[in-house]
Write a structure and sequence with these properties.
single chain; Aminopeptidase; 13-stranded mixed β-sheet; 13 strands; binds coenzyme A; Acyl_CoA_acyltransferase; acyltransferase activity, transferring groups other than amino-acyl groups
Length: 278
């Protein structure tokens, strides 16, 4: 019999193992952060006494993001993925969430559509391979702004408050959070190493394209010898143009989908946090 239970500390090793098999690059700390932020919002499917799958959610008041839906290979096609989705949606509905979003791989889109998710746009992924490149003009610096001022800026730019999550993320990456200021804050970005050795940039939120460009001009030369990744909402055309100019290349995208009320908040989003938390 399959049962869905809340993810506990003892389940995190299993969650990390599944994400490793999928090569999603998550760290143990990513799952710990999600569980800490909402101790009841991440789930494990149990098939009898064995763990069979996971799903995670992060809630920013009326808006939530659903991610990390993975069922163990040998347990697939038995309805466990559907059960995990139904369970997490019911949980979020009960919390009064009005909009749920996710980044779906194309093979799973029909499952999400059946559950009421609608297509929003392509969630583009870019990678920048290591290589010698000229040092570009900088301008931004490791951020000395408080996490409170970054989260206030973030709220002002995207229109809802994801401060609780961002404060935790920034606290874990104080030395690799960058910002651009000119009397006032113009852009910020968190960069963090992933389990696959890449460095991911995101969130990257900017006042305008010039600020985004200047921020990336500081960050990218620091990582000429590393793989850099960034996720960009397809509807932010300026962001696409900028990352291509900074030598990023297209990778297979996923599909941003939403359930409930559609909210459009991407105007200042030049880099998403990641495909599991939005
Ligand atoms: C997607 C996934 C969680 C589905 O789990 P599952 O337990 O096999 O799903 P179910 O048995 O409940 O089947 C529900 C639907 O999943 C979808 N599905 C089936 N196989 C799939 C696959 N290999 N990849 C993606 N989706 C698949 C189908 O739409 C299926 O509906 P159908 O049986 O009517 O065709 C599972 O295939 C998986 O872990 N894939 C790898 C990780 C991944 O891609 N996760 C989705 C990230 S957005």
């Amino acid at each position: 019999m399959t049962e869905i239970k809340v993810m506990k500390g003892a389940d995190i090793k299993f969650a990390k193992m599944l994400s490793e098999i999928e090569q999603w690059g998550h760290l143990t700390s990513d799952f710990e952060r999600l569980s800490r932020l909402d101790p009841n919002g991440c789930f494990v499917a149990w098939d009898g006494s064995a763990r069979a799958g996971i799903v995670t959610t992060v809630t920013y008041k009326d808006y939530a993001f659903l991610g990390n839906l993975i069922v163990k290979q040998e347990k697939r096609s038995r309805g466990i993925g559907l059960m995990l989705m139904q369970h997490s949606i019911a949980y979020l509905d009960k919390r009064g969430v009005e909009t749920i979003e996710l980044d779906g791989v194309f093979a799973a889109v029909s499952l999400y559509r059946r559950l009421g998710f609608r297509d929003k746009y392509l969630s583009l992924r870019f990678v920048r391979k290591p290589g010698e490149r000229r040092k570009e003009a900088a301008g931004a610096k490791v951020c000395s702004e408080s996490s409170q001022s970054l989260t206030l800026f973030d709220r002002e730019k995207i229109g809802f408050d994801r401060g609780v999550f961002l404060k935790e993320l920034i606290k874990d990456h104080t030395d690799t959070t960058y910002c651009l200021t000119d009397g006032k804050l113009l852009a910020y970005a968190v960069t963090r190493g992933r389990a696959n050795g890449a460095v991911h940039i995101g969130p990257l939120v900017a006042e305008n394209r010039i600020s985004c460009d200047r921020l990336l001009s500081t960050i990218t030369p620091k990582h000429n010898q590393r793989i850099l990744t960034i996720g960009v909402p397809e509807i932010n055309r300026a962001a696409i143009e900028i990352v291509l100019r900074h030598c990023f290349e297209y990778c297979p995208p996923s599909l941003r989908m939403y359930r409930g009320s559609r909210i459009d908040y991407e105007r200042h989003v030049y880099g998403i946090v990641s495909s599991d938390v939005g």
